[in-house]
């Protein structure tokens, strides 16, 4: 265990301490204690920057299950460090924000911070694990902590619904991903991502390659809310706003992006990867931005916008995979897409984080997030207004904010794709820039809605629950920090170029970077009247026009069929699955003991009959059998007649006496077959049990057949005949197949010398197998106690009550 | 003889299963009794029949029958007696309390769940 491992585990340890802190220090908000951890982690991880800037990496291994090759390997390279800094950095800001957002007295803070810390640790584990199994474990832990955080206000129906939905979808994806990991590790014979990436060329030709890729992409797409799995994210907005800012915009939903980036060295050479990741991402971007416009809940808009922006990053990673098909680094246009993806990832975390926090402030101060009730807050909340302008304009891609730069790089990458002569892009290539542009227009529109519907327009105090005023300063610190970063990165993007972006991009496409080389990352603020700049101007002009005339065309959304939505599909399939499994269970768990016995016997017949038939196990060998004597035949006839009498008996007395007759014939058989002890025991026991039967005779009801129907009887008879047949077949085969001589020689020889007895059966019971007999006596004692208890037990009236005591 | 005994055991099993599937509690108990008789005969048959004298030393014979199945059956007889006894008492008490031995009625109704 190195320091790196402790850094991953630290949040979990801290989480365990939180309840005690909460209990002991009630005067201080628990958040202040929690805040220390992400700050310390952030600063301590900064020390790895010099290492990753040289495109080096650090690896520390701790044994976990070495016999299976599963180790807890922590691996720091440019990509993981970028994520670690996002997780701890945004984490610190979110904790600070939550101190003012969540009331110290009203909310159950210990739960909130335990879950939040659990998530932080899990997320660090995801991005720092090199072992796929460890990665998977932490991955599911993020799903679980997300579930708990969404359901934080668990008394609300919507919260529970959203939590369950996100859990079901992300865990479904996670299981698919686990399958992909296992397939991949079978192909490469290792669990280490680094070692798998090293054998990428061989893996590419493996027949299971495509399967592994698609399974892993399921994990990435569900987690990063890509089409068609995005439906959980809007419902996850029921979580407290700090959680939405942290998990559902800045970090957890980017785990899918991380996964795609991390596995790019293994999969990205394939054309399937390019098409699947690129088109799913781009389609998600357009679809979600289109849907964001019609939302009326402020957080709903942000949720769809997050889905859309994640799609944007995803499509850039898909486009970037084209870079692998060019050897020369100098004229490789497509590495720009990877760089743009990393850059936009950082930018999105900053502007979307601040926008979520602003939304939280509006919700907190006005009591609503419905844009139809909000308006005219500009003069009442000037600082919040400024922050939201910065965030939203950056999201819309306007200068001088960082979103402008990465949006331009995105458009440029999409334009370049149209010129690519790979993967049949000659025909379909033009779709990429066109779709990207349409998505950008809608992004512009909803960004404007966020700012001007809330802060512009007419102030409607009568629709608000509270009298709005500016938020307390503490609540504003975090969004101010993020908004300053938005401007800072916008004006000086090259602060990031070689410190964070280059190392991260280099980890995504390591194969095309020569030893000691670096990607060329130069982000210029002004780059002339290029195609992408013209496209941005077009976005702004068309966007403004469409925003102005929004009331004219918003009705268009009504033309979409209301019933055929993915949400309805999810609800219907969940409902059908619940109903289906309920009725399936009900159909065979009938509560009748007969049904269960039928299942057991039918299974017995099927499995044994099938085995006998398939294996050809039936043997018939009559050479080694004893002769059949006169008495034996007579006894068999008596026994069978007695048995038949039981079957057809109308009165209980008849059947009991017939059972006794069967028992006595069996003991006569024991005499004939040279088993005197058995015969004696059987005679005694049979007498006692017949007496017992007759004792109960007075109390038990008339032996009625309970009007068994003909069909019922025939069914029973068929099963009974089947069981009898199988037993007879097995008996005959077993007798005809002697694989080795009996071990009875040992007992015959040693009975006298070792145990000093002459009756072998008795000696076996009391000496050789003495313990068995002892426990047999114990069983009988238990039975006797049970009988005594049953007879003595007198249930009160309303026996159920007595039972439940 | 062994083949015949296997068939007899099979028939006993069939009768036992048929009884166990019926609706009356008493017939089910009788069925379990028959099932143990069938099992005992089967076990004894597996050791070979009439291969020698009874397994008691000093019988002045060249061979003895296999004592192991006999030891097993002796245990089984006693245990199956215990089972039958418990079963009977449960049936008796259930009838006393509930007034029926019909398995369909003993199952209870949906409302009782």
From TrEMBL, chain A:
<comment type="similarity">
    <text>Belongs to the CPA3 antiporters (TC 2.A.63) subunit A family.</text>
</comment>
<dbReference type="Pfam" id="PF13244">
    <property type="entry name" value="MbhD"/>
</dbReference>
<feature type="transmembrane region" description="Helical">
    <location>
        <begin position="473"/>
        <end position="492"/>
    </location>
</feature>
<feature type="transmembrane region" description="Helical">
    <location>
        <begin position="29"/>
        <end position="49"/>
    </location>
</feature>
<keyword id="KW-0375">Hydrogen ion transport</keyword>
<feature type="domain" description="NADH:quinone oxidoreductase/Mrp antiporter transmembrane">
    <location>
        <begin position="129"/>
        <end position="418"/>
    </location>
</feature>
<dbReference type="GO" id="GO:0015297">
    <property type="term" value="F:antiporter activity"/>
</dbReference>
<feature type="transmembrane region" description="Helical">
    <location>
        <begin position="430"/>
        <end position="452"/>
    </location>
</feature>
<keyword id="KW-0739">Sodium transport</keyword>
<feature type="transmembrane region" description="Helical">
    <location>
        <begin position="712"/>
        <end position="732"/>
    </location>
</feature>
<feature type="transmembrane region" description="Helical">
    <location>
        <begin position="656"/>
        <end position="673"/>
    </location>
</feature>
<dbReference type="InterPro" id="IPR001750">
    <property type="entry name" value="ND/Mrp_TM"/>
</dbReference>
<feature type="domain" description="MrpA C-terminal/MbhD">
    <location>
        <begin position="638"/>
        <end position="702"/>
    </location>
</feature>
<feature type="domain" description="MrpA C-terminal/MbhE">
    <location>
        <begin position="716"/>
        <end position="792"/>
    </location>
</feature>
<feature type="transmembrane region" description="Helical">
    <location>
        <begin position="272"/>
        <end position="290"/>
    </location>
</feature>
<feature type="transmembrane region" description="Helical">
    <location>
        <begin position="135"/>
        <end position="154"/>
    </location>
</feature>
<feature type="domain" description="NADH-Ubiquinone oxidoreductase (complex I) chain 5 N-terminal">
    <location>
        <begin position="65"/>
        <end position="113"/>
    </location>
</feature>
<keyword id="KW-0406">Ion transport</keyword>
<dbReference type="InterPro" id="IPR001516">
    <property type="entry name" value="Proton_antipo_N"/>
</dbReference>
<dbReference type="InterPro" id="IPR025383">
    <property type="entry name" value="MrpA_C/MbhD"/>
</dbReference>
<feature type="transmembrane region" description="Helical">
    <location>
        <begin position="302"/>
        <end position="324"/>
    </location>
</feature>
<dbReference type="GO" id="GO:0006814">
    <property type="term" value="P:sodium ion transport"/>
</dbReference>
UniProtKB/TrEMBL annotation, chain B:
<feature type="transmembrane region" description="Helical">
    <location>
        <begin position="71"/>
        <end position="95"/>
    </location>
</feature>
<keyword id="KW-0812">Transmembrane</keyword>
<keyword id="KW-1003">Cell membrane</keyword>
<dbReference type="InterPro" id="IPR039428">
    <property type="entry name" value="NUOK/Mnh_C1-like"/>
</dbReference>
<dbReference type="GO" id="GO:0005886">
    <property type="term" value="C:plasma membrane"/>
</dbReference>
<keyword id="KW-1133">Transmembrane helix</keyword>
<dbReference type="Pfam" id="PF00420">
    <property type="entry name" value="Oxidored_q2"/>
</dbReference>
<protein>
    <submittedName>
        <fullName>Na(+)/H(+) antiporter subunit C</fullName>
    </submittedName>
</protein>
<comment type="similarity">
    <text>Belongs to the CPA3 antiporters (TC 2.A.63) subunit C family.</text>
</comment>
<keyword id="KW-0472">Membrane</keyword>
<dbReference type="InterPro" id="IPR050601">
    <property type="entry name" value="CPA3_antiporter_subunitC"/>
</dbReference>
